[in-house]
Amino acid sequence: MIGALIAAALALIRICAAAIGVGAGRSRAGRGGGGQEGAASGGSEIVGERGHELRCCSCQEMSLQSCPAAAGDATAEELLDRARALVPPALAAARAATGFGGRWKAIAARLERVPPCLSDLSSHPCFSKNSLCRELLQSVAATLAEAAELGVRCREPPKAGKLQMQSDLDALAGKLDLNLRDCALLVKTGVLSDATIPVAQSEATAASAGGAQTDVRELLARLQIGHAEAKHRAVDGLLDALRENEESVLSALGRGNVAALVQLLTATAPKVREKAATVLCLLAESGSCEGFLVSEGALPPLIRLAESGSLVGREKAVITLQRLSMSPDIARAIVGHSGVRPLIDVCQTGDSVSQCAAAGALKNISAVPEVRQALAEEGVVRVMINLLDSSVVPGAKEYAAECLQNLTSSNDNLRRAVVSEGGLRSLLAYIDGPLPQESPVAALRNLVTAVSPDSLVSLCVLPRLVHVLREGSVGAQQAAAAAICKVSSSTEMKRLVGEHGCIPLLVRLLEAKSNGAREAAAQAVASLMGYPPNARDIKKDEKSVPNLVQLLDPSPQNTAKKYAISCLLALSASKRCRKLMVSHGAIGYLKKLSEKDVAGAKKLLEKLERGKLRSLFSRK
């Protein structure tokens, strides 16, 4: 009875395989004899040995590839009927097979799950409108045919040996698992509901290289469904879609799609890893998927790719890590996944783009206080100093300076480490450039208290600060003013600062638009006035009193007023300066500040009002 059933099944399989083969031939002819893909997508042939042995070629290797032409003109309903008809004979063959009982039992269990999956798929209202369904049904039919054929072979004397049969059975089990998983995912992804492209149009798109735009949701579904080769082609299509219309891809992107891309970071083929890393890099740079990337486990494979990937793969991985590390939580996670060492290695050996991105990532990580010591233990200080000294990439130098600024912001041990490694000299050399930026000057500000005044003089720190006050950005000038405050703790250093011509530059910085720069300048001026010759120079500067009076603005945003009051109190001994203060509106400001009990405001107000009264009586 079972033999008759299997014989009937094989006859049915031959008919189905012949139909598929004819369709595949027609597809190849339509493409001009188109090569290996046609053979992979639809070729199946029947070997006539004993009149009933069926061999299915690599049709089953393609769970959801973009070449549905292998089924000819068959509709989704027709393909569904064929697949359903192949289930009973495949199941009967599996149960009747002799040898490898455990494997066949597991295969039979999988075959029993096929009909419910097909029912779920076919019950979807958009079942017949999407090419993915047709491709999946092709693959299911090919897998069922292979199951029946292997069942027959297991009832006969083995031709290729037990090891080969074991390998074939394991491969069959894997294909069944893939078919079952794909069927479930296809229903769950929502792509069937979103399908609006007619089947004929989808086929034309899939069959033509570089044809019309592929539906984004279908591409995203293909990332999750099918064999590796199908997913690889989906990544190519997704890259094209991102370049053409990034917004449409981002709006359709979901957690499952990101997870599928993350899995491709560990693909066997380097090119696939590169392409997946490129897509993830674009997504990270868009700023819309950081949460998905981390929650779906992207950090470990990205770090591995940065460590040992190809040139392109490493570059894209490092750029992605740089973007992700802007979040303090993700920066901590990168450290937790041992990501610091690969980034340091890229800084030392990578190309210019990768080196710059790695330095940027380390700069971002160094902004998190609790991981700074871990960075130092990995040798980041020496590497950043080397970048300052020898990198030809301006961006890498800037990131290195920012990293050193962060490392030295609150840790005396790290400050001493930077100084002992020669970091102060490297920062000064970098500051010598035509337009000094904030980060190297801020790092210098952090370090000036870690060296002796004699060393500051011998290293020519003060001329560099003058250069920054003249030529630097506003942020750099603010940092330079703060550095002057720190070095001016002694009378001797106050004298040297004044002799180097810093005072006129600081007075002009009082006019800066940045509140922080005005505050730093006012604090520096107040400190320098403790040396009488400096106070005389400030008094002589025609802009000093007007600029300081403007800093009496009672606005809460003005944080420089307490230093301005200190400076003006020191200058109020001069009758000329008092007159200037009054003429520039100091009394009005001071009355408001006195009401708020700002330190020194009432005392200065009384001085100015007494002087005004004396002036009035003297005129009478």
Automatic annotation (TrEMBL):
The organism of origin for this protein: Urochloa decumbens
Keywords in alphabetical order: Signal
Domain DUF7032 span(s) in chain numbering: 82-191
N-terminal signal peptide: 1-18
Highest rank taxon of the organism: Eukaryota
InterPro entries linked to this entry: ARM-like, ARM-type_fold, Armadillo, DUF7032
Name of the protein: DUF7032 domain-containing protein
Spans of repeat ARM: 379-423
KW Lipoprotein (keyword) present: no
